[in-house]
UniProtKB/TrEMBL annotation:
Residues 4-244 form the NAD-dependent epimerase/dehydratase domain. It comes from Okibacterium fritillariae. One of its GO terms (biological process) is D-xylose metabolic process. The lineage of its organism: Bacteria, Bacillati, Actinomycetota, Actinomycetes, Micrococcales. The keyword DNA-binding does not apply. This is UDP-glucose 4-epimerase.
Length: 350
């Protein structure tokens, strides 16, 4: 199999790269390194079956060149993280809508199968006890960036579905729910790396709002094999699948759990949404997946517990922090840039 992964230097993408290389695929990564990072691929760089292309999905010719000859494409490149979306609404819309259209066209031209990685954000504010794939989407104002982001991912899905029904493109859609694990950065707002990182550094844990909003966190190690199985299931074509965690937990309880798992004595501080994001920011009070469709199709079960997940995240953050400290001690700061970036850059083709 020749697999292309857009966004392959990102959090989920880099885990998928490792999984597919281990399965024997030739893998091409297309990533613009905006939110992805070369260091995410350090473990995979030595594999001759991996080729890296630094470029944007907005660049049509790069997308065409990268996908030419591919058997399948995993499309993960997208604007990611609530903070980024709120601060950069226009580039988020462009990346999601125009970038995805480029990927769809290139897949069609090359007869490549496509797995479109969407998001549980498409359900918006629907607080149903278990969102199934055909649940209603409840979005707020069309002028609010969080909801326009959700709308743009919904457009991606609609685009993909229309390419399937009108042109026969072989495409399946997945909607991950709060996937977390090693290499996820808290820079764009994601709560688990934020809280665990704060706990490890002895800083106050920032719980936004009243902390009673709930989520179901899924572990990247459970999600990635399911992505591949769904991509390979003929019956998945033309359909969408939720991939979420098993345990519903409030963010306040999550903070307490992060303290327990890390053994930290940090305090918890409650930050109003308008301070954390901006005036008028709206959050989901609750988001709970129904994983039945993915279970029926490929036997998806989110097996890793939240405590195990938090322990993995804590270990990864502690290791990265240690490596960064050692590196900063040996890299001349006047030259800028850490050695890891130079090493990784050497492997990039333009
Ligand atoms: N959140 C928080 N503290 C943080 C970051 C996020 O309390 O430092 C909250 C956020 O407001 C939301 C939940 O945690 O209610 C999950 O946030 P995330 O951005 O990880 O995912 P999403 O909102 O997309 O589910």
């Amino acid at each position: 199999m020749r697999s292309v992964i857009t966004g392959g230097a990102g959090f989920i993408g880099s885990h998928l790269v490792e999984y597919l290389l281990a399965a024997g695929d030739d893998v091409v990564v297309l990533d613009d390194m905006s939110t992805g990072a070369p260091r995410n691929l350090l473990g995979a760089l030595a594999d001759p079956k991996l080729r890296l292309v630094q470029g944007s999905i907005l660049d049509r010719s790069v997308v065409e060149d990268t996908i030419r000859g591919a058997d399948r494409v995993f499309h993960l490149a997208a604007a990611v993280g609530v903070r980024l979306i709120v601060e950069h609404p226009l580039s988020s819309l462009r990346t999601n809508i125009h970038g995805t259209e480029n990927v769809l066209d290139a897949c069609l031209a090359n007869n490549a199968k496509l797995l479109l990685v969407s998001t549980s954000e498409v359900y918006g504010k629907n607080t149903a006890d278990k969102l199934s794939e055909d649940s209603d989407r409840v979005l707020g104002s069309a002028l609010t960036s969080r909801w326009t982001y959700a709308a743009s991912k919904g457009i991606d899905e609609a685009f993909a579905h229309a390419y399937h029904t009108q042109y026969g493109l072989q495409v399946a859609i997945v909607r991950p729910f709060n996937t977390v694990g090693p290499r996820q950065t808290g820079r764009y707002g994601m709560v688990v790396p934020n809280l665990v990182g704060q706990a490890l550094r002895g800083e106050p844990l920032t719980v936004f709002g009243d902390g009673q909003q709930t989520r179901c966190f899924s572990y990247v190690g459970d999600v990635v094999p399911a992505l591949v199985r769904i991509a390979e299931a003929p019956a998945a074509v033309g359909r969408a699948f939720n991939l979420g965690g098993a345990e519903e937990i409030s963010i306040e309880q999550l903070a307490l759990r992060a303290l327990r798992v890390t053994g930290s004595s940090s305090s918890i501080t409650y930050v109003p949404y308008e301070e954390a994001y901006s005036e008028g920011f709206e959050d989901m009070r609750r988001r709970v997946p129904d994983n039945a469709a993915a279970f029926d199709l490929v036997g998806f079960v989110p097996r890793t517990t939240l405590d195990e997940t938090l322990a993995h995240v804590a270990a990864a953050i502690a290791e990265t922090t240690k490596a960064d400290r050692q590196r900063s001690a040996i890299v001349d700061p006047t030259k800028g840039g850490a050695r890891v970036a130079e090493v990784a850059q050497a492997g990039w083709a333009r």
